[in-house]
């Protein structure tokens, strides 16, 4: 069941004392995770750098489609930018829900895949009607062309305050960000033309509204203000506190 769309993977509702698993942690494990896993230990094709393990984290080599854990062993399961790589997304999601009571799933959206296409991504996602809809890139003819990954992943996040605010106030533009409890409703290569149209045809205003809903002025102001304060805190922690060490 969907709970909400967090603004980032650091804005999650993880209970104090919860046992947390990060599936496919790669080079960027979530600092809140107690246990982290990855399928490819020595191959960086699916990630940007070598596997990293933070102090006090336990690393287990594991395939996300066959996790070596008991049912509901974890209170919370985090999975960021992994499902777009897997062979069987339905089986993968079932495993996340089997071992976890609740969790967070993040992956590039269709828009994000157009802007930052990756050869290693087999699937592309959208959230439609509170469902995670997953389509095979080859099936819909989505080709890798210009890759603006450096612009959207490095340059703008590092230099543009406006882009940082956009990331925090409209995260669904580039990513699907989905917090869940008990289960995740997904559709893989659906046959319903309604869903196919989102991946194969120009969007109508109603389609844009369904993916990126309109918000009132007050909510926009509150969201932008909160994002600005969040950025300021992040800059303070990364620059001022580092200098004091």
Structure explained in plain terms:
This protein is α/β, with parallel strands linked by helices. It is built from 7 helices and 10 strands. The strands form 2 sheets. It has a 7-stranded mixed β-sheet with strand order 1-9-6-5-2-3-4. Strand 7 and strand 8 (131-136) form a beta hairpin. Helix 4 (161-169) packs across helix 7. It is globular and about 45 Å long.
SSE layout:
Layout: E1 2-4, E2 20-23, E3 35-38, E4 58-61, E5 76-80, H1 89-99, E6 102-108, H2 110-115, E7 123-128, E8 131-136, H3 149-159, H4 161-169, E9 175-181, E10 186-188, H5 193-200, H6 205-211, H7 217-244
Parallel strand pairs: 2-3, 2-5, 3-4, 5-6, 8-10
Antiparallel strand pairs: 1-9, 6-9, 7-8
The 3D shape can be described as globular
Rg from C-alpha positions?
Answer: 18 Å
Number of strands: 10
Taken as a percent bin, the fraction of beta residues is: 15-25%
Q: Can you write the helix and strand succession as a string? A: EEEEEHEHEEHHEEHHH
Class derived from helix and strand content? alpha/beta
Low-confidence stretches: none
**What does the largest sheet look like?**
7 strands, mixed
